[in-house]
């Protein structure tokens, strides 16, 4: 052994002896000096060891020992400070625990004395003794009570949210878009029935109205920049209930678009409006095997493409979704719901008066959508699977009807079937006249101010399917497809009243017979990551769409392909690339042509920058 180490050990001997001596001079926790003396007297064979008569640096033996070790060079100054701090902390905790235990013990003793005094005769003396094990139990109970209160009020975890705030989640997304629309030559005019039906009726008499009816742009190329911003909140309630709200941009109250075109509403950097896009209550049971929603919520029906339903469309009403795994990986599901499309104004009707001075009010003519869907999903493995479903939708009171004989002299007059006109439409559906206006009333020629309604009834049947091949995960191959057939369409009846979608007669140049239809389909292939979340995630897709005029209601389908609506066919290609976490760029090219009626074609390019949070 080296001489240096031997000297250190020699220095430790007197230090250890001093420590032994000091331990006899430190009172035990909760024990007085007189108690120590009594204890020593009982142990007559133990001689009390004294310490240096010099005044100690600290009344704590541990601190004195540490200081002595520093002085001897055994410990460094920073090591000593750490040990002293630890000793002080432990002493503080012990004192506080003893203090709390003493208070609790005194309270218990007083309660026991009071109870005993009430039960014992006067003059009886009582001495209360609280065992050490009881004190420990009291300390543990106090600690549990304090910690429970701290966790509930979150003052033990600085920066933590209160319990109610932890049940609320916010989410949102932003999209900046450049869009170019390019029209070839040879397009014919397309009448804008939505502009007429949501405004003043159109005067059909060409002799009195030399103007064309409102029509869509089909000839001049357009470029625009657009923004979509959405902010949503979901709150978990109790016993399976939750609620949600979402606000979104939008240049009007269109149900299929939350895009805001820059410079559209007033220009000159005018502010834009926000709309209530979602607002619902939801109940979930057995995990998410049963979900019941009421209010305005996302499309409850599974739809892998936008052939029938626009991806941004919100449903108003009530819906129920249920699923159950009958075998490992095989899960049937069903969906059903009822949704009001249009509710008649409480005061709807013409304030005209009959002979007995009774105002005329029209009966309620509400429009509804009832839907049901059934299907199943099956997993081949963790990354591959299929899903198929069939759905039936019943649109009630949407078909236009000819009114009873109606005398119209100005744009403010109304007829009894005016409310059968669509309150929102894109383009593509076949229309008919709604007003039965005689040519003359006596010798007076009547004005032919007209509104237009849908010529067909709509009860579409939809088949949907998706195959997910994940053999190269995270790269997948997705095959999506949908087919729609309007089971309520009767071509002969529609042709008899059709106002548009008439085939051109190349011989005479006048409109020919009705050539609309009631079927549609879409096929798409996507290769790449299923969701774009991270840097360099990617996917590309391509597909073909064919949607005849009256396969479904044009108001609710995709608003981008062919600038929205039905009666369109063509192809589309696109891709997405992740630029950062939850930030990605995308591009789409869509080429669409009319199927029936006037010639119409348009090519559209969209370049987007997207962010999700």
Automatic annotation (TrEMBL):
**What start and end residues bound the annotated signal peptide?**
1-30
The annotated region (Disordered) lies at 32-57
Check the record and name the InterPro entries matching this protein: Porin_5
Q: Which UniProt keywords apply?
A: Signal
Q: What is this protein called?
A: Porin
């Amino acid at each position: 052994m080296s001489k240096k180490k031997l000297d250190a050990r020699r220095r430790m001997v007197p230090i250890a002896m001093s420590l032994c001596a000091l331990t006899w001079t430190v009172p035990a926790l909760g024990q007085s000096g007189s108690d120590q003396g009594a204890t020593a007297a009982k142990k007559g064979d133990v001689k009390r060891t004294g310490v240096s008569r010099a005044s100690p640096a600290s009344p704590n033996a541990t601190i004195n020992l540490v200081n002595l070790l520093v002085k001897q060079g055994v410990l460094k100054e920073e090591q000593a400070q750490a040990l002293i701090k630890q000793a002080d902390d432990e002493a503080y905790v012990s004192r506080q625990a003893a203090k709390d235990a003493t208070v609790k013990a005194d309270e218990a003793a007083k309660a026991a004395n009071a109870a005993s005094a009430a039960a014992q005769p006067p003059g009886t003396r009582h001495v209360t003794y609280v065992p050490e094990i009881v004190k420990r139990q009291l300390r543990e109970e106090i600690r549990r009570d304090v910690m429970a209160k701290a966790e509930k009020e979150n003052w033990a975890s600085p920066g933590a949210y209160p319990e109610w705030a932890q049940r609320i989640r916010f989410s949102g997304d932003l999209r900046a878009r450049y869009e170019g629309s390019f029209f070839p030559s040879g397009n014919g005019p397309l009448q804008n029935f939505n502009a007429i039906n949501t405004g003043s009726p159109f005067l059909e008499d060409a002799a009195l109205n030399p103007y064309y009816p409102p029509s869509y742009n089909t000839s001049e190329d357009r470029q625009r920049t657009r923004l979509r911003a959405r902010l949503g909140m979901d709150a978990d309630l109790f016993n399976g209930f939750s609620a949600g709200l979402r606000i979104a941009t939008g240049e009007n109250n269109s149900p299929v678009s939350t895009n805001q075109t820059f410079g559209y509403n007033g220009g000159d950097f005018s502010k834009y409006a926000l709309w209530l896009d979602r607002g619902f209550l939801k109940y979930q049971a057995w995990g998410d095997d049963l979900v019941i929603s009421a209010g305005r919520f996302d499309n409850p029906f599974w739809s892998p493409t936008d052939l029938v339903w626009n991806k941004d469309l919100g449903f108003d009403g009530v819906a129920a979704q249920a699923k159950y795994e009958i075998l490992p990986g095989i899960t049937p599901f069903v969906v059903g719901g009822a949704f009001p499309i249009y509710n008649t104004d409480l005061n709807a009707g013409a304030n005209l008066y009959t002979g007995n001075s009774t105002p005329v009010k029209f009966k309620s003519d509400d429009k509804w959508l009832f839907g049901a869907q059934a299907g199943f999903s099956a997993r081949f493995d963790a990354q591959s699977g299929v899903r198929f479903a069939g759905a039936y939708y019943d649109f009630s009171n949407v078909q236009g009807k000819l009114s009873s004989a109606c005398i119209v002299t100005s744009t403010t007059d109304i007829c009894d079937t005016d409310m059968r006109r669509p309150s929102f439409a894109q383009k593509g559906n076949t229309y008919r006249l709604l007003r039965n206006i005689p040519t003359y009333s006596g010798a007076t020629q009547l004005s032919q101010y007209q509104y237009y309604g849908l010529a067909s009834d709509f009860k579409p049947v939809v088949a949907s399917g998706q195959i997910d091949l994940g053999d190269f995960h995270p790269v997948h191959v997705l095959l999506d497809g949908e087919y729609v057939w309007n089971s309520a369409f009767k071509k002969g009846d529609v042709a008899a009243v059709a106002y548009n979608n008439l085939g051109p007669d190349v011989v005479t140049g006048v409109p020919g017979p009705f050539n609309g239809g009631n079927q549609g389909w879409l096929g798409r292939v996507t290769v790449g990551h299923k969701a774009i979340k991270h840097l360099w995630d990617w996917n590309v897709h391509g597909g073909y769409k064919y949607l005849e005029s009256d396969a479904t209601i044009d108001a609710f389908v995709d608003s981008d392909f062919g600038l929205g609506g039905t009666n369109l066919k063509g192809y589309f290609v696109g891709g997405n690339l992740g630029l950062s976490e939850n930030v990605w760029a995308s591009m789409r090219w869509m080429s669409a042509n009319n199927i029936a009626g006037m010639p119409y074609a348009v090519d559209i390019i969209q370049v987007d920058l997207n962010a999700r949070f």
